[in-house]
Amino acid sequence: MALLRAAFSSLLFSSALALVQDLDDTFKDSRMEDVWLVDFYAPWCGYCKKLEPIWQEVGAELTRSGSPVRVGKMDGTAYSGVASEFGVRGYPTIKLLKGELAYNYKGPRTKDDIIEFANRVAGPAVRSLPSRQMFEHVLKRHSVLFLYVGGESPLKEKYTEVASELIVCTYFFSASEDVLPESVALHELPSVVVFKDGTYFTYDEYEDGSLSSWVNRERFQSYLPIDGFTLYELGETGKLVAIAVTDERDPTERSSRLKGLIQRVATEHRDQFNRDFQFGHMEGNDYINSLIMGEVSVPSIIILNTSNEQYFVPAEPVEDLEQLLRFFSSVLDGSAPAFGGDGFFQRIKRVAYDARSTIMSVFRSSPLLGCFLFGLPLGVISLMCYGICMAESDDDTELMKRDGFTDEEEEEGEEEEQQRLTAGAEGEEDEDAEKIEQKSPTEKKVD
Ligand SMILES: *[C@@H]1O[C@H](CO)[C@@H](O)[C@H](O)[C@H]1NC(C)=O
């Protein structure tokens, strides 16, 4: 019986191994025939350990669903040559490798998100929609849908080129005109259209610039609920992010009024502001507060520039649409004052702020540990100071008493003692710095 169980578990074990392959440096030469989804990890990295069980599930699921994508993992520290060739700069790094192309995965590290990514990127860059039913089905499932309409053309070539690069962000479809419902009236063919926000917009080469920059700007709904993760995704469009900071339980209904106002700017004043702004609301002010190292009131409006970490707030609370529109225009024409930023002093402030919030959070979650962690170095430092002071006063008296010692010998001994003590104290401090670094919000952002 025991034997049977052992045999069974070893069978399970070996099949689990087959689902996620451990890769070594021979991988580079043998990978070309297949599409590979690879987790580059480091044995010491905590996020990698958290990803490990999810990665096994990803491997199992992709195999089960008959996906052609093969799943592997590589210790980037053991095969650093291969890792750096694939441009791995941190751990864990998830990449989908498809022939000459390598796609980075930047989304949340959950099984479903990773599998969706793998299926999207491994498939064709442009998926064709053969029928009206198919179009309607896909339209229901995608809040933002890019569609090329027409036959072969230079625009289609361009579209395919853009799609094969930006497939990491979104899906791309193509169809002939008769697939579209009558409500969609295109001025000319071929066209590239995006369906979103309950309507559609057509790409115009003269007004919208390059197709890839247009796709990058249009790949989100104009108004979205925003959290820490989506904020940075939205920021990658190069737009400013305008947020209503709200409280669901706000009894005065000012929260929902502000949400409504921002939504109206997004839809009714799209022509004026869509190019430069992404709109949304965020529940609660915790995230924003730690981002700007200050305090925004709830509810309120804030505009963030995620590329230089500057932000804008209206001079007085926004009451109506006119006021809000004036605020948006003042940010665009540069007359609104910018706060924050990523300058030298802001960075110093960030380090101090992060250190403070780490200490606070340690104390809040376990005061005893906090006392130990931060009390111990403090204790050592004060003991050290005490020791130095006492040593000096001892000196004076002892020098007077004894004459067998020379001054030099005394000083040398003292210096050594001091060095030993400082070295000890420095060791302690370094340890703390490491802990602080591990918890800093910049890492959370990356995560
Ligand atoms: C946002 O930051 C970028 C990068 O520093 C800058 O070029 C741009 O002008 C900023 N936008 C506004 C409205 O300040």
TrEMBL record:
Taxonomy, superkingdom: Eukaryota
For this UniProt entry, what's an example GO CC term? endoplasmic reticulum membrane
Basic and acidic residues composition-biased segments: 435-447
Q: How does it sit in the membrane?
A: Single-pass membrane protein
Q: Which UniProt keywords apply?
A: Membrane, Signal, Transmembrane, Transmembrane helix
Skewed-composition ranges (Acidic residues): 406-417
Region annotation (Disordered) ranges: 398-447
Q: Which residues form a coiled coil?
A: none
Signal peptide, first to last residue? 1-18
A Gene Ontology molecular function term of the record? protein disulfide isomerase activity
Q: Give the reaction(s) catalysed.
A: Catalyzes the rearrangement of -S-S- bonds in proteins
What transmembrane ranges does the database entry give? 367-391
Where the record annotates domain Thioredoxin, the positions are 8-123
- InterPro entries listed in its UniProt record: PDI_TMX3, Thioredoxin-like_sf, Thioredoxin_CS, Thioredoxin_domain
What SUPFAM superfamilies does the entry give? Thioredoxin-like
Q: What is its EC number?
A: 5.3.4.1
- Please name the Pfam families in this protein's record: Thioredoxin, Thioredoxin_6
Q: What does this protein do?
A: Probable disulfide isomerase, which participates in the folding of proteins containing disulfide bonds. May act as a dithiol oxidase. Acts as a regulator of endoplasmic reticulum-mitochondria contact sites via its ability to regulate redox signals.
Q: What is this protein called?
A: protein disulfide-isomerase
